């Protein structure tokens, strides 16, 4: 089968190769991939030297071989899935516990944008606790996670201020009800909750706008710049604040269950994935470059037409 594999080239990061079709473990289903989403974090992973590794964590398609142990969706079921890797291919082996059935009303292109970004947003907001009436500052808001967080948080009654570099990148966030600012330093605080995914100076600017005893949840470092904290700066506002590290895989709920929640929200019109780019998978390398340079708002989805 055809699959996209890392090239080690900084410009053309992936290329097609002929690889063996995956042989699923007993608890895995074989999925014929119709669409997949690429994430900015994967562009960073492609820079490293990882022999044998193939990218791809967000897929949607059709189960062509059900899990041998009887778990998960049956053969012939339309699904969305979150494999640990190797999803940018014609076929992917996906753990049954990381698959959710798709109703006919949800296109595969929409579903492919759900797993990584949607799971992160859903679990991040669970970690944040009740949102009604709380003020929330969200950095790095113009990516896939940010759009999901903003729509879900505003629907839950939060007053969201979203950081997006340009008005165009923040347009959809504003439609969801957020106040949009170009950087954390421009945000009017104090905030009850800060959701921070950028790192560097943006982290410290966001932290400074947290109210006394507020909470900052740190869920990424997209700038790839480490954070420097000054103990005494906390006395200027966020005194006794809590900083919590967050990673979406550290959760008490099953991936399949949370994917089903996301699919249900989409099918009922309560969640609207922001897909800033849809293209044939032959264009994956170019789309990855645009995603890395922040020329894509929301998610980018590639389709496999066979």
TrEMBL record:
<dbReference type="InterPro" id="IPR013149">
    <property type="entry name" value="ADH-like_C"/>
</dbReference>
<dbReference type="Pfam" id="PF00107">
    <property type="entry name" value="ADH_zinc_N"/>
</dbReference>
<dbReference type="InterPro" id="IPR011032">
    <property type="entry name" value="GroES-like_sf"/>
</dbReference>
<keyword id="KW-0521">NADP</keyword>
<keyword id="KW-0560">Oxidoreductase</keyword>
<dbReference type="InterPro" id="IPR013154">
    <property type="entry name" value="ADH-like_N"/>
</dbReference>
<dbReference type="GO" id="GO:0016651">
    <property type="term" value="F:oxidoreductase activity, acting on NAD(P)H"/>
</dbReference>
<dbReference type="Pfam" id="PF08240">
    <property type="entry name" value="ADH_N"/>
</dbReference>
<dbReference type="InterPro" id="IPR036291">
    <property type="entry name" value="NAD(P)-bd_dom_sf"/>
</dbReference>
<protein>
    <submittedName>
        <fullName>Zinc-binding dehydrogenase</fullName>
    </submittedName>
</protein>
<dbReference type="GO" id="GO:0070402">
    <property type="term" value="F:NADPH binding"/>
</dbReference>
<dbReference type="InterPro" id="IPR020843">
    <property type="entry name" value="ER"/>
</dbReference>
<feature type="domain" description="Enoyl reductase (ER)">
    <location>
        <begin position="9"/>
        <end position="302"/>
    </location>
</feature>
